[in-house]
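Slide 14.
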Amino acid sequence: MKIAVTGANGFVGRHVLAELANYPLEIIPIVRHLPSSSLPESVQAKAIMLDIHAPQKNTFERMGRPDALIHLAWGGLPNYRSLHHFEQELPMQYQFLQGMIKSGLQSLVVAGTCFEYGMQSGSLNENMTTTPSNPYGFAKDVLRCQLEYLQKTNPFSLAWARLFYLYGEDQAENSLLPQLRKAVEQGDKIFNMSGGEQLRDYLPVTEVAKYLVSLAMGADNIGIVNICAGKPISVRNLVEKWVAENNWTINLNLGHYPYPDYEPMAFWGDRRKLDTHMEAQ
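Slide 15: predicted structure.
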């Protein structure tokens, strides 16, 4: 089986490649720029340089005609409010994926986002109506709809992996865990953060990678599926957990930053559909 991965040298992509390396598969890492020195050492595959914003007619052939594609690439992040997401990114994303499907791709796994749910609170399940409240969530949701319409004329297996919050090695420096680690390494006495009472759904990126690879290997047209822990945790408790696990000495300056206004105070994912899929593997 051949599995291609776009965004292969990104935060999630590198962990997906490392997980794929555990199986007897042909891995096809797709990167926007070479060299690809940031790919995991366990991945012996040669990366293919490809700009999905300027796809060529023979893109599918250049990628070696993969059986499945794990599509992680998306530009303009982490600026969720930028109009770039639906003015530029959305049409280019659809053009690329449409070309892949029409060229013969049979199975597609796409990274969606919990922001598609918008300002809805509590436990969020895949059957809920989406109400995205920022351009990024809106663009992702529209892309999903476009792909579902495309399935009616060009049948293919689609897994829309709606990601919640991730953490782990190689995460962007402006993310919560890297900021905390940097503060500790600098010898800071305090760590500035929000009040920390907001409830979120966090998963280690290594676990997320396992789920994405399982979806790609299953190719069972699962549709939308939450990739989440299924259990809420307050941001404060999460940070305190990291501090305790690493034996760090630092005080939390709670309430220094306001709560973000583009997401509700309490939401997490319902993972029953994900669990059913994993039990069937």
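Speaker note: The CA atoms of residues 18 and 87 lie 33 Å apart.
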